[in-house]
Design a protein that fits this description.
This protein is an all-alpha fold and about 350 residues long. The chain has a domain of about 190 residues. It is about 80% helix and about 5% strand. The protein has eight helices and four strands. The strands form two sheets. Strands 1-2 form a two-stranded antiparallel sheet. It has a two-stranded antiparallel sheet with strand order 3-4. Helix 5 packs antiparallel against helix 6 and helix 5 packs parallel to helix 7. It is elongated, with a radius of gyration of 43 Å.
Length: about 350
């Protein structure tokens, strides 16, 4: 069978068009994939931004490390579960994990005292340990040493509170041991023994643990007063001077905490002002965005109305042209018929 030159050219053209078509399809597919990937990336970035903002909202001030007041650990768990449903948020998960560990340190440390020492930006000037907790305090110190926030203001306050807890715990243990040794002496207890124990108890913070130790010491006081009437006056005078010394000691401890509390109050005020400014800017930005959306909607509506109007005009023009053509054709037909009759 003979293949003509024209046939070969036609086959080449078909192949050329086929190759060109494949190239166009591949190009369009690639462009579509790139557009899809860009949209996915934009969506992931938007989600990541929202999740990071939610993490930031768990803090009074993320820069200094202070958590929101009255926060619970469930807030971290809820955020963790939400982040796990998104892709490419490993860093956010790590940040949440670190934040949760830090908050756990604060929660456990607060639990060692009769009331919270640090809650949000509120720092108690009179922390009172519930009982000796040497091992627990040591464990929390080790955890804080591994925290990524240990150098922040929050971490430094945690270290200060742990130092206070450590000192009170040691004082509690010493007072308890001394009291046990004193009571074991029975009737051999002297006034000097009693006053030495009172001095030990004087430096303890006024809380439940101290009250319980004083109650154990009351029988010794009564015993000494009954044995010698002159002891009663000495005990009263000595206890008065010890009360003054106790007040001085506890005021000295509270002084540093009060100073720090004042600094935190200033920080709280500064953050409130920043939040007010942020809210003001956000309201302004929302207003601008609403105006832009309204303007965009108006322009789109005008464009649609303009397109509809142009389409209507084109349709009318086409109809008019068609009628004119029909009329012309009809006149021509009549003239031809007339010419044939003549």
């Amino acid at each position: 069978m003979e293949i003509t030159e024209g046939g070969t050219d036609l086959d080449k053209k078909k192949i050329g068009w086929l190759v060109l078509g494949l190239i166009v399809i591949v190009a369009l597919s690639f462009a579509g994939y790139r557009i899809y990937q860009d949209k996915v990336t934009q969506t992931e970035n938007a989600h990541r931004k929202v999740l990071n903002e939610r993490l930031t909202n768990l803090y009074e001030d993320q820069k200094t490390g202070y958590f929101k007041a009255n926060l619970s650990e469930t807030a971290f768990d809820d955020l963790t579960n939400e982040v796990k449903n998104q892709q490419g948020n490993s860093q956010t998960l790590t940040d949440i994990e670190h934040a949760k560990k830090d908050f756990a340190i604060q929660t456990e440390l607060n639990g060692l005292f009769e009331s919270d020492v640090l809650n949000g930006l509120d720092l108690s000037a009179h922390p009172i340990l519930t009982e000796p907790e040497a091992e627990k305090i040591k464990e929390l110190k080790n955890q804080l040493a591994q925290s990524t926030a240990k150098e922040k203001d929050w971490g430094q306050d945690m270290a200060m509170i742990l130092g206070i807890a450590e000192k009170q715990s040691a004082d509690y243990s010493k007072a308890d041991n001394d009291l046990t040794n004193l009571l074991n002496k029975g009737n051999a207890i002297s006034l000097s023994d009693y006053l030495a124990e009172v001095r030990t108890l004087a430096v303890l913070p006024d809380g439940v643990y101290k009250e319980n130790l004083l109650k154990k010491l009351d029988p010794v006081k009564n015993q000494l007063a009954n044995e010698n009437s002159s002891f009663a006056n000495e005990i009263q005078q000595s206890e008065a001077s010890l009360a003054a010394a106790e007040k001085t000691y506890q005021e000295k401890q509270a002084k540093a905490l009060l100073a720090r509390n004042k600094e935190l109050a200033e920080l709280k005020k500064e953050l409130a002002e920043k939040q007010a400014t942020y809210d003001s800017y956000k309201d302004l930005q929302d207003s601008i965005n609403d105006s832009k959306r309204a303007e965009s909607s108006r322009k789109q509506k005008e464009s649609e109305e303009s397109d509809a109007s142009d389409s209507s005009s084109e349709s009318s023009s086409s109809t008019s042209s068609s009628s004119s053509s029909s009329s012309s054709s009809s006149s021509s037909h009549e003239e031809n018929n007339q010419a044939e009759n003549e």
